[in-house]
TrEMBL record:
It is found in: Membrane. It comes from Salinivibrio costicola. This is Magnesium transporter. The chain crosses the membrane at residues 283-303, 309-336, 357-379, 385-410, 422-445. The keyword Transmembrane applies.
Length: 446
């Protein structure tokens, strides 16, 4: 659904949701996918959200909850009558429970598990062996799998009954469930029906380790030219698969998380979260930003005497800080993306550093000349123009250095550079810019 279409539907929903008619909900439900319904619900204030969700057909209520962000789905679960929730969660499957387990109360979680059949319980238990950052936790446990001794005609009969989404290969395992290889489905048609499937196996088929990071795995699937890759445990046992659709969802989730992290927010943040919760979530980074601002102010205070005598320096300080901040954020964004895609390594860090320093020097000199001429003409002081020009060059070069090394160092320390890199970078460029500008002003203008 396009953004403009979604906005129209949201406006229509807000005008009709108070009517409380199931017909309105059913009409919208039939016209939109689960993803779109989840986004529509997240766009509604909590009271309207709960009201509309309750008007959806029971068969779709849980799948829609599973597609929603954690904060938004939790708001619905907390608002709905507990007896109704217990009835609703009676038919919960393992995959949906995995999506919702972080927002369910302990009694609901226990009841849902207690009502599952043995197969679903085993799937849930298998996923729980892995952290939620690992692909083994999220992989699809229903790939098309056959033992190596199965004959082709048996597999063809199976294909007529079962055909999962994103499936162009049959996965083959031995009698213990250990991975053997994959057979392209198109090879089965026209093959001798009495052949064993193992005779058609494509052995050199890429696979994923269940302990691998889910986002790394998603990137591998997206670049593999396969529609799904098998997920194997450390012993080579096939436990599931990661398909292309899920891989794209994970990549989009990571991109959203990185965007939100630059503002110190969680990707699960609800548009209509309670005021106190939203304030608490944002207070931490406001406090960190305050401390860095005081640090920059302290450095400015070291040049108080200079500022009192050359007021023009105070007027031009924001220009120096802004140019360094923008230059640094450009480099930082480039490096964070490179780290996320696995493109940055020791072997290419030096040429990358050289390139960014040259870019910084070129832009620094160019804009130093422009800003120096403007400042010199504005305040009728060509000495001031030279001082700010030199400070701009120094700050943009230091911004390039910080933009490269900060995310690399933070990544080595297992700290998300998208989350904290921009705060630290701004502090560095502010301090370097102010010290260079005010220091040079002290030396040459007094």
């Amino acid at each position: 659904m396009q953004n403009s279409d979604r906005q129209e539907v949201i406006e229509d929903l807000l005008s009709k949701v108070d009517e409380g008619t199931p017909e309105v909900a059913q009409e919208i439900e039939q016209a939109h996918s689960l993803d779109d319904l989840a986004l529509l619900l997240e766009s509604l204030p909590v009271t309207d959200r709960v009201s509309f969700w309750e008007q959806l057909s029971p068969a779709i209520q849980l799948p829609v909850l599973a597609e929603m962000r954690a904060d938004a789905s939790e708001a619905i679960i907390r608002a709905v009558d507990e007896i109704r929730l217990h009835d609703l969660f009676a038919e919960l499957d393992a995959d949906t429970l995995l999506e919702l387990q972080d927002v369910l109360t302990e009694p609901l979680l226990e009841e849902a598990l207690g009502r599952m059949d043995t197969e679903q319980k085993q799937r849930y238990a298998s996923a729980q062996q892995y952290a939620d950052s690992e692909v083994g936790h999220w992989c699809d446990h229903q790939p098309l799998v056959v033992p190596a001794k199965t004959k082709v005609n048996v597999v063809l009969r199976l294909l007529r009954r079962v055909m999962p989404k994103y499936c162009d290969h049959v996965f083959v395992v031995d009698s213990r469930g250990v991975w053997v290889g994959a057979v392209p489905i198109h090879k089965l048609f026209g093959a001798d029906g009495v052949l064993k499937i193992s005779e058609l196996v494509r052995e050199q088929f890429p696979s994923l380790n269940a302990r691998e990071d889910i986002y790394v795995s998603a990137d591998k699937v997206a670049s593999s030219e396969e529609v799904a890759l098998p997920v194997l445990d450390d012993g080579g046992m096939l436990i599931g698969r990661l398909d292309l659709g899920t891989a794209y969802e994970m990549q989009a989730e990571r991109a959203e998380a990185q965007i939100m992290a630059t503002a110190g927010l969680d990707e699960d943040e609800d548009l209509f979260s309670p005021v106190m919760k939203s304030a608490r979530n944002r207070a931490l980074w406001l406090g960190i930003n305050l401390m860095t601002a005081f640090l920059a102010s302290w450095f400015i205070g070291l040049f108080e005497a200079t500022l009192q005598q050359v007021v023009a320096l105070a007027v031009l300080m924001p220009v120096v800080a802004s140019m360094g901040g923008i230059a640094g954020s450009q480099t930082l964004t480039l490096i964070v993306r490179g780290l996320a895609l696995g493109q940055i390594s020791k072997s290419n860090l030096r040429p990358l550093l050289n390139k960014e320093l040259q870019v910084g020097l070129l832009n620094g000199v160019l804009w130093a000349i422009v800003i120096g001429l403007i400042a010199g003409y504005w305040f009728n002081s060509w000495g001031l123009g030279m001082v700010i020009g030199a400070a701009i060059v120094a700050n943009i070069i230091s911004a390039a250095l910080a933009g490269i090394f900060l995310p690399v160092i933070l990544d080595k320390l297992k700290i998300d550079p998208a989350l904290s890199g921009s705060v630290i970078l701004t502090t560095v460029t502010d301090i370097v810019g102010f010290v260079a500008f005010l220091g040079l002003g002290t030396l040459f203008l007094l």
